[in-house]
Amino acid sequence: MLYYLFKFLEDRYQLPGAQLFEFLSFRSAMAIILSLGISTIYGKHIINYLRAKQIGESVRDLGLKGQTEKAGTPTMGGVIIIVATLIPVLLFAKLENIYVILLIITTLWMGAIGFLDDYIKTFKKDKEGLKGIFKVIGQIGLGLIVGCTMYFHPQITTKEVMTETNPTENVIARAEVVDMGPEVKDTSTTIPFVKDNEFEYSSLISWIDADLVNYAWLIFIPIVIFIVTAVSNGANLTDGIDGLAAGSSAIIVLTLGIFAWVSGNIIFSDYLNIMYIPRSGEMTIFITAFAGALVGFLWYNTYPAQVFMGDTGSLTIGGIIAVLAIATRKELLIPLLCGIFLVENLSVVLQVGWFKWTKRKYGEGRRIFLMSPLHHHYQKKGRHESKIVVRFWIIGIFLAILTIVTLKVR
């Protein structure tokens, strides 16, 4: 909203300083400052409200050290993340931008599902919360919205950079000679570590018959649904000890912010020889606001946590990360960038699968890990949760660096 106000003041009255709001970097900086302020300053008031309403976590005794002391800690703290993200976005972003609209819908959609789950756990005293089938239906619904929008919306396009510049020229010199082809409506994505790294989902079906290229949505939309569901569940499983999900997610989101910024910038996309995605740079406003909200939330969520994000936060975080990766055409990097989420997911799948298989074969279920998800395995081994969290963060930073390296290493 402030973007439109200051644009009007600049166009109408040439107000000094109003032109700053035209710059993506300025609006991104303002977004992260405001989101940090909201999550740290007003976050305390939200926590006090949750505590006053006795909206506390009901902890099941899993035999983990220090677990019982967490009973009664305020939950639904994901509301802090959602509020601290959306307010700066509404103030500083171009609200007609389709990517911003899609991210706002994602935040509200997944936030509503998570909030309903936490509400049932807290107020209905049902430890199971929202039935798993309804969570999956909600995730599939979001995936369907995102997939259809990405495939059919006319403003979601790519452009091919056409330039004959010398590769040794600097970025500023190249700015004057970059030429672009027309906007193309496609389902292309990026394959990491490959030289000619653009991949068309339509090729998965068009090899049967060239006319089937018009039915690429039959492939693309189910893939989007799978990604949204998998990443959302991965973030949900990672939220098990103080600061793990919020810190790991902040690292992932900031990395995706780099991808969004360079992909939406004609000069840097040309210089790095990556896909140029018109209008995608505006996602940087959302990303910086979201990152600021996550870091601010960590102020209260680090050990010993004063508030838990609950499913209100974890499902929302996973959904946003999935949509950001899809929108920047970097979804094939998710196994690397979101490696923490992946191993947490796999640890549960392997544990449950192995237990069921051995029970059928030997009459007694056996386990691969002492407990799943994986972070609980290390807790059972006697590691303090603060040490587990920091080491997971370090691994997350390493994976983020490797992901950024894929911009040039092919």
Identify low-pLDDT runs: none
Global outline: globular
Instruction: Give the strand content.
Output: under 5%
Summarize the helix and strand pattern as letters.
HHHHHEHEEEHHHHHHHHHH
- Secondary structural class: mainly alpha
**Biggest sheet character:** 2 strands, antiparallel
Task: Give the terminus-to-terminus CA distance.
Answer: 41 Å
Measured on Cα atoms, how large is the radius of gyration? 22 Å
> Please, how many helices?
16
Instruction: Compute the number of strand runs.
Output: 4
Q: If you average the pLDDT, what whole number results?
A: 88
Order of strands across the main sheet: 1-2
What level of helicity do the residues show? 55-70%
Would you mind describing this structure in some detail?
The protein is mainly alpha-helical and 410 residues long. The chain contains 16 helices and four strands. The protein has helices spanning 2-13, 24-52, 78-92, 98-123, 132-152, 171-174, 203-206, 217-238, 244-263, 266-271, 283-301, 310-327, 334-337, 339-362, 374-380, 385-405; strands at residues 158-162, 179-184, 188-190, 198-200. A two-stranded antiparallel sheet has the order 1-2. Strands 3-4 form a two-stranded antiparallel ribbon. α3 crosses α12 (310-327), α5 crosses α8 and α9 runs antiparallel to α11. The model has no long low-confidence stretch (mean pLDDT 88).
